[in-house]
Structures are given as C-alpha cells and as structure tokens.
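Protocol step 4 of 6: structure prediction from sequence.
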Amino acid sequence: MKPHVLRQSVALALLIVLGACARLIPDTSPPFPHRPDAPTALAMGVRAGPAVEDLGIARADAIAALGSFRESCPRLLARDDTSGLTRNEDWKRPCDAAAEPVPDREARAFFVRHFESVKVGAGDAFATGYFEPEIAGVRTRRAGYDVPVYRKPPDLVRAKPGDAQPLSSGRMPLGRYDANGKFVDYFDRTQIEQGALMGKDLEIGWALDPVEFFFLQIQGSGRLRAPDGTVVRIGYAGQNGHKYTGIGGLMRERGLLGEGPGKYPGSMQGIMQYIRENPVEGKALMRENRSWIFFRELTGDGPIGALGVPVRRESSVAADPKFVPLGAPVWLDLDRDEADGLWVAQDTGGAIKGANRFDTFWGAGAESRKIAGGMSGRGEALLFLPKGTLDRLGAR
C-alpha cells in the first residue's frame, strides 16, 4: 500500500523504463475475444475481478479516494463515457451516496457497497508519475527571465471540413489559416522558440530556465515562483497540434540511457543531467518534441485535470478515456509499492494511451519531483464500476 503521507504525482510520458509483473486477478475467460489493438475498453473485452472487499483497501486510501470521487461526480454524471463501459445513469447511485456525509470509518465500506471490480483485457498495467513542478518565473519580463509562457493563441484553430484531412479520431486537425486563407500546420517548438509568437501579447509569464520550463510543459501544469516569493499557478490551455515525442524514448533508442560509461539514468533527473551537460545536443533533442503546450492562469487549491476538477496528491491518476471512464476509481497493484492502492481517474495525457496505462499524480515539491521522476511500475489494474455494470454488459 502506498503510505498516505506520500500522496503526490509526476506522470512522465518521456520515461521508457521496464519493470516486473505482479499478480492480482483470477484467470477467468473474458466474455469477448481479447483484442490488444481494440479502440475502446468495451471492444477489448472486460471480465469480473475480485470482490472489492477482498482487495484490502487501506482506510487512509479509501478516505482520500472518496474525496476525489465526490469531486468528480458532477462531471461524471454529465459527460459521455467513451470507453463504452458505463452510462451516465450508472453513476447516479454511488454519486448520490457520496454526496451524503460519509464518516471516515465508513469510507472503505462505501466502495465495497457501491462498486464491483473489472479487468480490462489482460489487465497488465504500466504506470509512470507526474507532479506539479515549481520553477523560477515572473509575471513581467525582467533580466534573466527570458523564456515566454504563452496563453493559447486565438489563431490556433481546427480546420474547417474540406480544408484538411480528418484525424483518425474523426476530428479535424489543429493548425492555423495563413494570410492566403490556406490551412497550415501551427508553429512547432523550434519556430516558437525562435520567436514566431513574439509581439502578439500572448505572454502570461516568463521563466528563468528553458530546461525546467520544457519539463513543466510535459507535466501540463505548474507554478512560477518569483524572487519575492509570489507564486502564479498555471495549467494546460491547449497544444499546437504537433505530435508529442518523448525524448526519453529517443535517448534510449540512441543508447544514451542505462548503465555504463557515457550513459545516463533512465529518469527525469538523468535526462535533465544529459541536457545540461550537453547544451547544444540537449537543445536539439528537446526540439525533436515539436509539441508545445499553452497555459492559462489557475486559481484554487490544486492543478486542474482533464475532468475539470483539481487533481490530488496520491489520489488522482491520468488514464486514456477510451479505456477508463474519467471519474472512475482505479486499483493498482504494481512492483512499485508506493503506487499501490486506490486512485481516481481525473486526468489524461498525450502519452497516456491504451488500456491499463496510467500516470500517477504526486503533488508538488522536491519529494514529489523525485518520486514522479523515477516512477515506472508494472503490475495489474482493476477498474471500479458501479454494481450491476457487468450484468448489463453480459460480462459476468
């Protein structure tokens, strides 16, 4: 079980580090053929997992997860579940119950009473970590603070039907219309760093260190701390439409990560070390990730996830909504004990794709950064769905 005092988060899609496997689910036959390449959880196939009461949910874990589930309910009841597993009305009973006062001593019983566990496909899970980085930054540009933090530009739009090929999802691509009215790709990381957006009054702040800001963009939210101690919290507002490329994967392919002379640790810290020790090559490496993240200023007590509610340290996890209903509880049993236990799917990520792929949130601060930067766990995962879902799906 993860200790309650550790609840924090740092999902880094750039880390490609392998781990071992754990065990959790009984070997029963799935109701549908198992399809590893299926587009949704329903198409992949689901089957019943162990009884929730047999999972040994820790009291502190249950209390924190219940709080996050309660915050998720208004969105959970209103959004469409693209995984194909649940309907809005399925969540009404557990959400109504969560809206009532639940004593801490009853938090574990709440999940036992209202949920059944489900394994998606083979249930083999891979989890990384993310956190809310805090870097040196100011609202108004000053000496040394030269890295612009941009809001989403108004000319970043989706193509009109007929002006570009639709994406595989059916949506039109992101880009811009040039002076001739032709739809073109939006500026990529190199072009933006070279000044493509300067002079357009898009800056909401200025960062001190381009490397720290690069990794803040990977996290998708963070804090800018000025020399006088004032803090501006920023969160994801949009992306330039270019595919995310994990530089950790590139380094691994090129033999730069691992053990031995000339190699660097396969963690966020190791990747940053390489970039700082090799500034020219490091800058070029970062530019191979053509994706650029735009931000907005946030207020409130936590960074906002894709579900539209604050993500909480060691309670919130990012997942692929095609395989996990956003707002659903998730049980992880990994070879990284600190990530074991109950989470709630409240966020998504550009590299968090596919069944049983998760990104655990570890909060803010140096400890969070360390845990998230090195998080790479393998094991098994269960989804908690409202009781009766399996019978409705014919998957009992």
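Step 5 (inspection) to follow. The chain has two domains: 4-129+301-393, 136-298.
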